[in-house]
Amino acid sequence: MTTSPRAARSLACLLLLAQAPIPLLLVPEAQAQTAQPQSVPDTAPIVAPSVGQADPWLYRGSDIPHDPEWHFGELPNGIKYAVRKNGVPPGQVSIRIRVDAGSLYETDGERGYAHLLEHMLFRQSKYIPEGTAIAAFQRLGATFGSDTNAVTSTTQTVFKLDLPNATPTSLDETFKLMSGMVTAPTLSASNLKQDLPIVLSEMRERGGASKRVSDAMQKVLYAGQPLANREPIGTLESLTSATPQSVRAFYSRWYRPDNVAVIVAGDVDPAMLESYVKKWFTDWKVPGPKAVAPSFGDPEAPAGADPKNPVGETRVLVEPDLPPSLMYAVLRPWRQVIDNIPYNQGLMTDALAQAIINRRLESKARAGGSFLSASVNQDDVARSADATFVSVTPLGDDWQASLRDVRAVIADALTRAPTQAEIDREAAEMEVAFQVPVEQQRILPGSKIADDLVNALDIRETVAAPQDVLDIFRKSKPLFTPQAVLEHTRKLFTGNVTRALFTVQKDGAATDKALQLALSEPVKADASVRAALKPISFEKLPAIGAAKKAVSDVPTGLLEIEELTFANGVKAMLWPVVEEPGRVMVKARFGGGYRSIDPKDAAYITLGNYALVGSGLATLGQDDLDRISTGRKMGFDFEVQDASFQLSAETRPSDLADQLYLFAAKLDLPKWDVAPFTRAKAAAAIQYATFNTSPQGVLNRDLQFYQRGQDKRFATPTPDQIEATTADGFKRVWSKALKEGPVEVQIFGDFDKAAAIAALEKTFGALKSRQPAPVSAVQAKIDVPQPSDKPIELIHHGDPDQAAAVVSWPTGGGVMGIRESRQLEILTQLFTNRLMNAVREKLGVSYAPYVYSQWPVDLAAGGSITAVAQVDPKSVPVFFQTADEIAQDLIANPPTADELALVTEPLRQQVTRAASSTSFFMSQLEGATTDPTRIGTVRSVLSDYTVTTPQAMQALAARYLGRDHSWRLEVMPEGKEGGVAGK
């Protein structure tokens, strides 16, 4: 049973187009005076929804309450469909075409065919000429990769499209194109020749240490089952042996109407959506009966295994660049179930059992145990196994102690029932998780609702409305007894066989036999981390200070957003919005961000991201923070930005006041527990080596450092630098950061204004006056990379056929250039389209080439346009040459009007959709209390991103994309540095 909440029309229609202060907010300035509503011919007749809603195919045999928002139907040829109205975001329709076949449906000689077909269906089909799919969907306003996509798993292939600004004409065209892809692909020799190199490139890009671990995990955990060697990417041998005939044979076997479901959710009447399904899929006919799905097998214990503790395959894998990681799984056969209420009550009890164990394991890790982290998780895997996974990240060399300590906590859970207090605590957390979708059902995106139903089909279950899920949970509470949880815990750790994989960093650290023995040996139950649940109340926490009223409360002139100012200098922006029921977004920006940290203290930035929140506040440590928020929706995200630090959370109206207390107390009453700092040091040191495992990992580690002129504050600290930090140093750096600089609070969403102001008076209004944030010349310096034709050379330890190439052009920064930064987004999209076409066709890369623009609003410089691709090492110079050629052509020749439209229309739809949520305005208005000019820039956001000319794009290219303005970087495999790319 999957929840699938109802949605309704969101903010864009209710607010953005109707507010008096900015009635034309989302109309481009150049068109504002002439834009008129246009009628669009209806190309698909509206018919009444199908009968048979009393017996929809999804719910047959189940007592789960039917979600009345979904309209189900079946066509005479066997296609199943489900459609529903959803207005989030307004005007969008999300279409999913699910084929019930993935890599587990392949024969040995067909490995990789399901995924290869996914590519070839986009290449050419009945209504899409070869190589034109991306442009066809862009003309409809859909961005390739985000709005238009597909995914192949072991058990299904799903084609996805989120169509913005759906009209009868565009919907009809979209269904036409997508139906042609699925029902009548060309699958020619030319298609295969074009797509095979791209798939092989994707195989190459997914290689390296992580892929080796993933492959080993599959082979060990699912030994003897097809899942052990049926990764969707396939094998080099099977893919290079593919022919148009062999690919079509797989297509013909599984791409048939009786094996396909069409799922649609969007801002259109369900009857109209149903009419498109019928119009474009009814005529699909195929000969012969449906093929029988292959058997996925069962996990089996080896002969002679101890029936009480059947430990099977174990393997130790040496990967020097990955942190030590141990996973074992208790495996049971997967069987299709009747998705009914008793089954879901059992799942809820299972979830409670796992949550109790996980909280105990986390408590042991926080207390300085022998492991950095550990968790248990039950999952039904690829309709092949019902598995309970135990994951452990050991600390130090004594991995046996780590495994023993984790198993001892689990053994205690298997020996004695939990207390009712422990159950009630986890049940309260679950209730919040079920309550929030009920409160926010009007604002859930249609894309998620459609995906939820697709996922339910894949696991052979149903969906239910949020209120029904919550009702089932609440009625089930009497079933959640200590004895019931104990029984479910024991079932979770009982299975046919237990298997394990242990990734270590050096030879000799462990052996297969030692791992098997460690899993077989008995352990003594550890009850030391059973929670002693003493109640904690916000009412008993120390006050921030004397409550102070705001000295001013004025409208901003934008929508109904108001700005409050307190005597201590704190400023707050408030926007109560009833159209986002149940959700309140809170941000608190303070201090000076990266630029306020002394470069010699750079390592503490990373540690702050890990440990600042966990170090506590007032009288609360990390465990206390968890307990005090039990049964509440509260958050505590922390982010370091260019010129500020930010705390953020999504909460509920009833929890807003206490959420504000947590943020304010973090600034004024910080606590400095050493344990989170110590754990953060271990985590940062362990993670560092993982960056070396692939070109993308090295870019994640180093690219920002080079983009910012090798400013140490943007570098990933090395293990030696992490080791040199101290708890006193952490407190020195972050206590200074917490108390300095201005404070800006944003509260946007569903809340009572008077109550929010009263809460602000007791929290942020009661803070001490803030100290200025003095920034030295060294700290304030903004470094920009120097132009160079010679690439910076970095190396990775991954596969020898992997490399990455980067070309970057410095641009600018600051609010005064915000329009130009938005116009640069158009330019980068033009660049991306050209680069993707050129590099994918020239080099056969998969999804790697992309171009993006950064423009730091809070700094006067530091922005950049950056082109990136993952390629094979010999192709790095070709990428550099191609990027230079595209840049020079954009300088020499303006784009055509049609090429520009392929970019501006998707951007128009992206901005319009984004503006249907308060979070969009929140991000646009960050810092507006100290820089009011940012308010004005919101009014022009749509026109800035969409209204331009070919000549304006050419001028921007000339300003920024000159070859003598760029610098470049390459990431080569170890042993090939200084090769052809660097000469």
Report on this structure:
The strands form 5 sheets. Strands 14-15-16-20-17-19-18 form a 7-stranded mixed β-sheet, with helices on both faces. Helix 17 crosses helix 20 (674-688). The chain is an alpha+beta fold. The longest helix is centred in the middle third of the chain and has 26 residues, at 341-366. The protein folds into 4 domains: 40-281, Metalloenzyme, LuxS/M16 peptidase-like (Cytochrome Bc1 Complex, Chain A, domain 1, 2-Layer Sandwich), CATH 3.30.830; 311-520, Cytochrome Bc1 Complex, Chain A, domain 1, CATH 3.30.830; 559-775, Metalloenzyme, LuxS/M16 peptidase-like (Cytochrome Bc1 Complex, Chain A, domain 1, 2-Layer Sandwich); 784-894 and 949-982, Metalloenzyme, LuxS/M16 peptidase-like (Cytochrome Bc1 Complex, Chain A, domain 1, 2-Layer Sandwich).
